[in-house]
Amino acid sequence: MTHTQRWPEQGWALLQLFLVASLSQAEDTVCLQRGDPGSPQLSEDGDIMLGGIFSFHSSWIERHDTFIHKPLPLQCTSLNFRGFQYTQAMLFAIEEINNSTDILPGVSLGYKIYDSCGSIAQGVKVALALANGNEAKFSASQKPCSKPAQVQAIMGETSSSPCMAIATVIGPFHIPLISHFATCACLSDKTKYPSFLRTIPSDYYQSRALAQLVKHFGWSWVGAIRTNDDYGNNGMATFTEAAQQLGICLEFSIPFFRTNSPGKIQKVIDTIKFSTSKVIVTFLSHMDMDVLIHELSRHNMTGYQWVGTEGWIFDSQIAEMDRRHILDGAIGLSIPKVHVRGMREFILDVKKLLSTQNELSVEFWETLFHCRFRHVESSDGNQRECTGDESLTGVQNSFTDLSLMPIFNNVYKGVYAVAHALHRILSCDETCDKTVHLDPNKILQHIWQVKFKTKDGNEVYFNEKGDPAAKYEIINWQPKGNGAVDFVTVGLYDASLPSDRQLTLHNKSLIWANNSLQVPVSVCSAKCLPGTHKVLQKGNPICCYDCIRCSEGEISNITDSITCVRCDPEFWPNERRDVCVKKEAEFLSYAEIMGALLTTASLCGTCLTAGVAFVFYRYRKTPIVRANNSELSFLLLFSLTLCFLCSLTFIGAPSQWSCMLRHTAFGITFVLCISCVLGKTIVVLMAFRATLPGSNVMKWFGPAQQRLSVLGFTLVQVVICVLWLATSPPFPFRNLNEFKDKIILECALGSALGFWAVIGYVGLLAILCFVLAFLARKLPDNFNEAKFITFSMLIFCAVWITFIPAYVSSPGKFSVAVEIFAILSSSFGLLICIFIPKCHIILLKPERNTKKNMIGRAAKSP
Questions:
Q1: What residue ranges define each of the domains in the chain, with the CATH number in brackets?
Q2: Residue 672, number of CB atoms within 10 A of its CB
Q3: Over residues 267-280, mean pLDDT
């Protein structure tokens, strides 16, 4: 684009700027008001003016502006008696201050009170009117378009959203805005709302109090409904955060507003109807609760446990609308009850409201007494004419219901906070200095610093966020016989106390939904008992879970345990898996049947061996005893006795000495036993060789050599055992791995090499003995001892060959039993095979016990 092409655009811009400057100079001495704020609904002059913004109406007629004509003023509907009650509380405080000589003596307070209709836009509009005045045009030649604020402070609004809008507009001018019922925690942010204060606690505390209340009754699965404005959305957000920290889950959280379409309202009803939670937490204003309770009653939705905020829980007007007793048993938080002397009578004195003779006062009077003034046209011809002298006697409606006295007291305290700040600024003693220039910013600073007690002893002060101390009463709706509801205080919540003492419940009976005396149950999943743990269900909130039994070796000893804890190695879970019990120590004891049987077998073997020894000793001079090397026979019987007895060392709880003794004693005694058998076998072979012509082999294996061979073979085993005990001896060991629920008391080998050296040496001698006996099995004599030795060693080797796999595979104490069985079996095999045939001949066949019979077979040989 060229320079000449840009000229038209620049030219028009300069022309417009010139016209604006010319018009500004022409009107530099006149300020024009934009819009039409209208006159205040109630006003009275005074030395110092206070503003008030209350909702005398709760709704308005929606208009769709076409932007062709100037929009008409907002048309308010649905007269709200609560707004008049708040106004009366403000006027009561002003009148009391004006009549007092203790505070602001000689100074009168005036007021200007506007109706906001519950509309945010209207609230901002009237707030600007209070700040700037409502003159349509005024001269400002000395200070163009500037003038002091019309009011020094504003009381109101009732709801949080209008307060946020108003505080945002007047905040930069530092005009104090003191609300009696706006509880949104967001208003505590002084960077956004620097001039906002309130005489009701912030929802920051109420939300946490509600979460603690829900947790106290064990409700972990709840629904939530909130007013779709700043009060409901912020309050519910804080509650949700606190609830999550306490393990509470929200099945649903839905917005609601009284002007919603029927379709949206039906969706809310359907959500509640098809939910599984039986407890519903509400962050609703009383106006929204009015609409919701009507819809709930229309659908007859009883049986839900309602948890409410101070917005409606103590409002008897809501209770009157609850014709189907939907909210019976409701529980929630309320501002503590108070009694302000004289306020009740002042509020119910309505003559002063009518004296203003404006449109609002007429509407109020006609609605209050259900009549019509003559000059007002009425579509209902049956209504009586108003006289202006009607009395409240017998009238029962929301205006005569003073159950919200704590909220009225909040208005009262707000006015007094401003008065005390003014008292200090004006240096009031007997009189006040009226010459002091009043600046809203200065008033705001002094309000922040006030700390006083009302005439009824209520302390008033503001913290750094402009909030009062957070204290609530816990209210329970308890139906009375006549269909009315009794609001019973059942507990307290004090946020100034430590967290574990903030919530206290009195020892009073509570009524729950459907007039039940049992606390309702509202959980997604039943509690997991001890012995189980929670496993979250995929895709569901943390309150929905399955209860899974703890794995082997693990327990959980608390309800709703997240994990199971593994028991210490020496402990094992009980059957319910909720306690770790000490594992049973298992060992082969004398008291049990198997131990007793093995002990009996050991003692029987010992006695049998002793009996055989006695027979041999008794018949020691007989040929059969003498022919079988009596010295080795007695030594063999002695070693067999030790073999039987050493099995007893394997029974009983292992100790340091028993562990070292059992394997070494077993190894040495069995080597001694087999050495004797080996000696007898060699003697038999040598004896056969000695019978051959020219053989003198017996001189090489006489009695001395036999003794030395036995001693030599045994000493080798002794040396092996000594080395084993010296290097790495067996020791008692608590085996925790063999069985999961038992401790096996056993003897660890220490050195496996030492153990297998002992066993291997015994096996080596046994095999050698078996081979020699097998070679001598068919020697030509009448009593071939080699045959019996062969058979005994066959049994011995078979027993110990089968012992090894049986020992390795046997669990716990059974491995010890297998080892004892092998010792006893091999000992009995040697005893029976070698000695019982001889005892049979000695005792039962004495005629065969002759020298002739012993050598008869050899003599017959060729």
A1: 42-63+71-201+341-348+392-461 (3.40.50.2300), 203-334+470-515 (3.40.50.2300), 532-582 (no CATH), 593-616+630-839 (1.20.1070.10)
A2: 22
A3: 94
